Amino acid sequence: MKMTQKLFQGILAGVGAAVLGCSISGRAATVNVLVGSGGNVFTPFSTNINVGDQVLWTWAGGTHNVTSTNSAWVASGNQSSGTFANTFTTAGNYFYYCTIHGTPTTGMRGEVVVIAPNAPPTVTLTNPATGAVFAVPANVTLQASASDSDGSVTNVKFLVDANVLTNKASAPFTAVTNNLAVGAHTLSAIASDDKGATATNSVSITVVNPVAVQLSAPQSLPPGRFRFTYTANAGLSYVIQRGTSLSPPVWTSLSTNKAGSSSINFTDQSATVSPGFYRVGLMPNP
């Protein structure tokens, strides 16, 4: 029986020096701020860090202090030398000032901008399903869904085993691999976001040589039932059809089954027409 195969296919504003402190994402760092270097100023005025990083204020001249505008932290007393450090564990904007030479909004003040860590993208191979079985020749469509909660997905790379099939820069994320060889294969999708983070999802499939379908062990089961056995490949799908004539052939589909083993028993529960003819055909790959 011949079947036709189908395919699926922030800008920071401030006064004074515009020097920005920064740290390397994914690694705790210490960023330095000079206190009173060249006057009643914090240098730099605005400091960018990541969650978990530390800011170290070093007194360079004059008598000053470092006070949070919400009293979250304060340097011990007024200092003309030494250092003060604070580790920031939560993303947000933290403003501070020197109570001797400024206010929360004017004079000697500064800010620390704590940037949340980049959330990696998510990716899921939606087709094929893991564990799927295909008959040769196997032309398999890979489909993936990908998203990024704090940015955008810039690429989805598809792999067959260790080999790159293709890259897709935008949705729909889909690719087709042709003529997969018999055996086990791993299909993967790797999503990348706009900050360089990646995520991977993989499924395992199997490609088999389909066995010849053979019908055997016919048995009438009163009242009005008929049973037979047919050979199959576990994981492949078969259609069972019944006919009342072979000239001309007229077939009615009774059932479509995914084989669970190499030998399948089928029972026609309504075998009331005589004569009756049966055939079993391998369905096309999904």
What does it look like?
This protein has 286 residues and is mostly beta strands. It has three domains: 30-115, Cupredoxins -  blue copper proteins (Immunoglobulin-like), CATH 2.60.40; 122-208, Immunoglobulin-like (Sandwich); 215-282. The chain contains no helices and 22 strands. It has strands at residues 30-35, 42-43, 46-50, 54-59, 67-68, 83-87, 92-102, 107-115, 122-127, 133-135, 138-147, 153-160, 163-168, 173-180, 183-193, 198-208, 215-221, 225-231, 237-246, 249-258, 263-268, 277-282. Strands 10-16-15-12-13 form a five-stranded mixed beta sheet, with no helix packed on it. A hairpin with a 3-residue loop joins strand 17 (215-221) and strand 18. The chain is rod-shaped, with a radius of gyration of 35 Å. The two termini are 17 Å apart. Mean pLDDT is 89; it is low at 1-25.
Mean pLDDT: 89
Indicate the proportion of strand residues.
over 45%
The CATH topology of the largest domain comes to Immunoglobulin-like
Work out the number of β strands.
22
How many structural domains? 3
Number of helices: 0
End-to-end distance: 17 Å
Helix content: under 10%
Q: Residue ranges: pLDDT <50 for 5 or more in a row?
A: 1-25
The CATH first-level class of the largest domain comes to: Mainly Beta
Key terms for this structure?
5-stranded mixed β-sheet; 4-stranded mixed β-sheet; mainly beta; about 290 residues; disordered N terminus; rod-shaped; Immunoglobulin-like; 3 domains
